[in-house]
Amino acid sequence: ESSMACEVCEGAEEMPEPLQQCTAWLRAYFCEPASTGSLPVPAFHHPLLQRDSFTRQVLWTLLKDVKFGEAVSYKQLAVLAGNSRAARAVGGAMRNNPIPIIIPCHRVIRSSGDSGNYGGGQLLKEWLLSHEKLQKEKLA
Which keywords fit this entry according to its UniProt record (predicted)? Predict the structure, then answer.
């Protein structure tokens, strides 16, 4: 558990609205996790999230259905996204996630309970899972 105060370094005086939303969301995630549910999800304009695909379906399902402090297996997420036989494709969707943390691919773990891979490294994934677990316990 970190004893450091949460601090977000501000950039230019006038940030575009989507960047302001991302900054507010990330500040809430790290400093006041209970408030993330009440914040609007920042607008995402990444091409991967615009076209109709299984990857997009998986990422939106993850964002919508797997809440703060929860974890889901690749297979469970495949079922939630509508294709119970696509656990490997879910792994591909996690690798292609253009907005980690906001679209919480760190919450997807192996069926065995092992944390599995993460683009930011296994230590970061475990830290994020631990952060969420500790914050959720504080709220309970």
Answer: DNA damage, DNA repair, DNA-binding, Metal-binding, Methyltransferase, Nucleus, Phosphoprotein, Transferase, Zinc
Q: Position of tokens 């253009």?
A: 98
In whole angstroms, what is the distance from residue 118 CA to residue 106 CA? 7
In eight-state DSSP terms, residue 116 is -
DSSP E strand boundaries for 44-112: 72-73, 108-109
Q: Which of 77, 35, 85 is nearest to 59 (CA)?
A: 77
Rounded to whole angstroms, the Cα distance separating 88 from 54 reads 12
| pTM > 0.70 | yes
pLDDT tens for each residue of 83-128: 999 999 999 999 999 889 989 999 999 999 999 889 999 999 999 9
Residue 85 and residue 34 in one domain? no
Region of residue 86 (phi > 0: left; psi between -120 and 50: alpha; otherwise: beta): alpha
- Whether residue 92 lies inside any domain: the answer is yes
- Together in a domain, 62 and 124: yes
Do 65 and 30 have their domain in common? no
Secondary structure element (H or E) that encloses residue 32, with its range: none
Active site residues: 105
